[in-house]
Amino acid sequence: MGKGKLAKFADMERYENVFQYPYSVVDQVPFEMKGRWHEDYFHNDNPIVLELGCGKGEYTVGLAQLYPDMNFIGVDIKGSRMWTGATLALEQELKNVAFLRTNIEVIERFFTDGEVQEIWLTFSDPQIKKVSKRLTGTAFLERYRKFLADNGTVHLKTDSNFLFTYTTHVVSHNNLPLLFRTEDLYHTDGLDDETRRILSIRTYYENMWIERGLNIRYMKFGLPKTCSLEEPDVEIPVDEYRSYKRTKHTSRDTSK
Ligand SMILES: C[S@@+](CC[C@H](N)C(=O)[O-])C[C@H]1O[C@@H](n2cnc3c(N)ncnc32)[C@H](O)[C@@H]1O
Questions:
Q1: Which of 104, 127, 144 has most ligand 1 atoms within 8 Å of its beta carbon, as the pocket-test mutant?
Q2: Phi, psi dihedral angles at 165 (to 5 degrees)
Q3: CB 110 within 8 A of CB 102
Q4: N or C, which end of the chain has less CB nearby within 10 Å?
Q5: Which residues of this UniProt protein bind substrate (predicted)?
Q6: In CATH, what number is assigned to the domain containing residue 64?
Q7: Among candidates 152, 147, 148, 121, which has minimal Cα distance to 34?
Q8: What is the rounded distance in angstroms from the CA atom of residue 90 to the CA atom of residue 122?
């Protein structure tokens, strides 16, 4: 039988690759590693990549295995999910992996200007009703710009046509450099071997969506430091299906 939540939480308390700063403590405890991840944790100068909403951390661990010369940090608020990736990274002695348990709304408190090179958003909640909660919305892009290198890359891998279409509008409306985009990742020709290898890492949610026969969509874009960012004014058809373990997003057919 698998471990229960309490046992996982106890493990997380003593794991050296886990940092826990939920809302309840983030204001009380200063985060002294802001600006010091290279020196104090990774002990190298290699680029740092974040996976936001990492769940069990499949991308964080999978990319760390593929790229030992880069550093990866998985961020999520759900400790029992994160436990899976953190445990695997410890078992495999991956020194280029860390996990940060916090709310992404306060992510800029943990990294200083230019400390992060890339961000992965893997199967993020589409947040159909609330644009301010969408991880590719301008409110979050503004947060990321505080610590992402100039023109740092944001990757979005998703099942959600709503989130994908919305993000496409955010990118085009703000003239952000679109580096790659496909609406059907596993039926796209012409991907080079490296891209195919990276994109073949499958997360827990991704496997569930694939089982249901849904397309997996992927895009990556650059995020310049200085351009002004504005929300696009578009109505987007909402996803027709319901998410696992979530109630129906909205009774409307479209949303902004
Ligand atoms: C749909 S799950 C996807 C998990 C994983 N990336 C995967 O593909 O299996 C979304 C994850 O994002 C996390 N999440 C959503 N909003 C968050 C927020 N504001 N702060 C921290 N974590 C958040 C949830 O806890 C959840 O684990």
A1: 104
A2: -65, -45
A3: yes
A4: N
A5: 129, 159, 203-206
A6: 3.40.50.150
A7: 147
A8: 22
For the chain, what is the domain count?
1
- Span 118-163, pLDDT tens digits: 999 999 999 999 999 999 999 999 999 999 999 999 999 999 999 9
* Beta-sheet pairing, 18-20 with 97-101: parallel
Contact 228, 169 (CB under 8 A): no
Encode pLDDT of 44-73 as tens digits.
999 999 999 999 999 999 999 999 999 999
- Residue 69: count of CB within 10 angstroms of its CB: 8
Cβ contact 50:116 at 8 Å: yes
Spatial CB neighbours of 40, under 8 Å, sequence gap ≥ 6? 32, 33
Among residues 160, 135, 157, which one has the least CA distance to residue 212?
Answer: 160
d(CA 246, CA 65): 32
d(CA 139, CA 123): 19
